[in-house]
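User: As part of a screening pipeline, I want to sanity-check one entry by hand. Below is the sequence and the SMILES for S-adenosylmethionine. Please return the complex as structure tokens so I can compare it with the automated output.
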Amino acid sequence: MKKNSLYDFFSKKRPWSKIKDHLLSWYLTPYLAKVFSGARNFYLIDGFAGPGVFEDGEKGSPLIEKEIVEKTNLSTKNKNINFNLIFVERDKKLFERLKHNCGDTPWIKCYNESIERILRQILSQLEQNAFVFLYLDPFGINGLPTNLLDLISERKDLKIEILINFNSVGCYRECMRLLGSKQFDDYFSENEYIGDPDRSIGRMNSILGTSTWPNVARTKNAEYKLSLYFCDNLRKKYKYVLNMPVRDFNNEEIKYRMVHCSNNCDGAILMADNMISKAIFNKISLFSLDLEGNIVDVDSVIPKIMDFIPSTTEKPIRLNQLLLKFYEKIGIVCNSTKIKNYLKLKEKNNDLIIYRYPEKSPTGKTSEFWSEGNGKVVLIAKKMHL
Ligand SMILES: C[S@@+](CC[C@H](N)C(=O)[O-])C[C@H]1O[C@@H](n2cnc3c(N)ncnc32)[C@H](O)[C@@H]1O
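Assistant: Here is the complex for your manual check:
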């Protein structure tokens, strides 16, 4: 992308940028309500901040984040929380606009730096056990930190969740360029994509966590397969990694993928559930897509959940872990209520054995709940009919 195009990008917010903003705010609102209710220290790091406001007046991610944090702080009962927003923007001119747009807010710090260079320093200064939300929204895969997993290992105490706008199509293009193909050079609208100036085989190996990507880059569905590599790499440090394709329904193409990483089962369920319910409510049906990005018939896909349930001879699986397995392997195609309704039917049909703790309600009734949290546990196994 030429320098002028970088600034052109912020002249007017495009529909695709609006979708990722929705996703960010839909998640941040309930996530922050939860974190603010109990945390001592919280940091939100926006690694590719931009100027904060587009020239058409639309808010960019930093101001969206600021507004949600302000609202959460006003409504929380936890007055002891120490919270900070850290915005990183590499371009000097955009950084100046960012600082101006953030105003004189004591809990916001802006850095005119490259996120890959400054992230270690930022993380090293945070208090023990702080909660951190890291938002990475690069152009293409340009600037995506390759040292992310190392940095997370260095601060295992921090509770870091990451939301990444992974430009899987851009990644595919970069892979092909590394393999010597010029086929895709003019493919992207220059306003939405910056080629990776640091591209190298080694860097791609780090981003995808494997050196075998050339084997898939030239095959069918390469974009999808590369996104699986990207997510599997993140799974080396994160228990739950959700891969959410965002599709252009006009020309059937995947635009990008939002990837959410968390070690907290409830956080991951919150992300999945919230995304799909809000998308349906707002008539943005992004997620009745499977992992490959195909529109699916939800009712015919839900029964696949049975494949992830161990049989009675094995260890039963917890309900929330089962839901996440389904979302990770099949995609966020529907909300968890729909899946639970299917499981309820299976329980009635005697196809499942369910262990619930506590086994009885306070009034002595046998528990029948279908949710976890607040001391409730649901364990599931599949009955083998002989
Ligand atoms: C896609 S835009 C981000 C838009 C922003 N999230 C929003 O919603 O308004 C990417 C931004 O990251 C900046 N940038 C590019 N590489 C960077 C890097 N390595 N470190 C920090 N900022 C970078 C670009 O100048 C650009 O402003």
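Points to compare against the pipeline: The longest helix spans residues 15-38. The CA atoms of residues 25 and 64 lie 7 Å apart.
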